[in-house]
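Fig. S4 source data, part A: sequence.
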Amino acid sequence: MDIMEWKPFREVSKLRSEMDRLWDDYFGSGRRALKPAGAEWIPSVDVSETADKVTVKAEIPGMDSKDIDISLSGDLLTIKGEKKTEREEKEENYHLVERSYGSFSRTLRLPGGVEGDKIEASYKQGVLTITCPKKEEVKAKVIEIKAE
């Protein structure tokens, strides 16, 4: 049996370092817990490709289509917008007014060969759909194999 030095505060010291790590993880500089809700909102995006077109669907609920901007620069498609919400409640004992503002920007690299002048966009029930037709020379061609 070995004799060990008794350190009465070893467990307390270990507990303190674990608590310090916990606080640093939660309140540290990179932690989002202290940022206001909705401050860094980025819409979810689905991109699908067929032989004829590339389709981009972005979930942007609660916005008007006039508050959304779409631009194409080379093969970079950018979706920008500004979300503004205001809520007001008046009751007998209180009056509540909440306002929140925030902007977002999402840039996607499209596969080369999309016809920029024929891109169409629609916005319905919070989903923005952008259809980008491909150029004729980029479309995949099926080559038939002749058996002899």
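Fig. S4 source data, part B ends here. Residues 10-27 form the longest helix (18 residues).
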